[in-house]
Amino acid sequence: MEKRTFIIKPTEAFTLSVYALTFVIWVIAYYYYPQEEAINISSNSWFGGILSPNSIFTHILTFSLMWVNLILLRRFNEKFGIIRVRTVMPELVYMLLITFWFPLHINYIGQVSLLLILIILGMTFDTYRIKDATENSFIVFFLISLLALILPEWLILIPFFFLFFRLLRSFSVKVFLAGLLGFLPVYSFIFGYHYLVNDKLPNMLGALKEIAYFDWIQVNSRLMIVYVGILLIFLLVSLFQVPFLRLQDNTRQRQYNLTLRLLMLLPIILIVCRTKITLMVLPLLAMIYSFLFSYSLSLRKSLINRVVFYLFVSITILIPFYLMLFR
């Protein structure tokens, strides 16, 4: 991995300063963001009922989990070389998005889900060109079954990760069967417990109908539409440069980047079709966005990339503050 970056220098002083500023913003948002208007994240997950959305412990837990995920993001890039230079840009972009999307400050469910997905993704990346990846496959799908207990919609991860094993050239019949067996421990326990307590098996047909129910996204704020559109334009500016920059990547790095681009479809599908769980999937979307957006900006020194980065920082800070103060 090259030891340079172009737009921001990955120094410890810079990183600590950003962390300190982030903490200050979270404290300000706790006192001034109208929590009564925040979306209740507990309505779609039993896990969400553990802590009250308005509790200070919810904010502390979410903030702590965000830091853990930031550390994992750094280790993830260092280990797999998603961006082949030493850079803090993915961390910075992710931190900015999570910090200034104020409703996410109560979203510990999304942070726990992202933590597990990062572990799952890392174990999947470890199987690159491994002929016998049955152990990783078993653990990956076991963790997906745990994720589905937190939020049933995460079951959509199943076809994605079977595809990822195929892209990373580690898929086989044994890997497929090991993945299916990964579900057995968790759901065998659930079925057994439900049968012992209620003397009948759970209604799986009703559960599947609930998961398959579509709740199409509705956006009432024109400013929010503009904000999302600008973020999309910034991402496209970065992605348009990828075909030229990826020529210096090795085959493994190219497959990893392709996997992340495909994975971005998952939170988009869930947000469009299941708008009630938007908050819980936004951390995953922010993580993927941070890598894809940072890729070109970290590798290519150009005026347009600098302008795009500084515009991204400005808009990410100003628009959420405007929505908070003048809603």
Shape: globular
The fraction of residues in strands falls at under 5%
Distance between the termini: 45 Å
* Number of alpha- plus pi-helical segments: 15
Number of domains: 1
Helix content: 55-70%
Low-confidence stretches: 37-43
Radius of gyration: 20 Å
Q: Tally of extended strands? A: 0
Helix-strand string: HHHHHHHHHHHHHHH
User: Whole-number average pLDDT?
Assistant: 81
Major pleated sheet: none
Structural class: mainly alpha
What does the secondary structure layout of this molecule look like, with pairings?
Blueprint: H1 12-32, H2 56-80, H3 89-100, H4 108-125, H5 134-150, H6 157-167, H7 173-182, H8 184-198, H9 204-211, H10 222-239, H11 242-245, H12 251-263, H13 265-273, H14 278-299, H15 303-325
Helix pairs in contact: 1-3, 2-3, 2-4, 3-14, 3-15, 4-5, 4-14, 5-7, 10-14, 10-15, 13-14
Structural commentary:
This protein has 327 residues and is mainly α. The protein has one domain (12-325). Helices cover 69% and strands 0% of the residues. It has helices at residues 12-32, 56-80, 89-100, 108-125, 134-150, 157-167, 173-182, 184-198, 204-211, 222-239, 242-245, 251-263, 265-273, 278-299, 303-325. Helix 2 (56-80) runs antiparallel to helix 3 (89-100) and helix 10 packs parallel to helix 14 (278-299).
Précis, in short:
It contains 15 helices and no strands.
Features:
327 residues; 69% helix; 0% strand; globular; single chain; mainly alpha
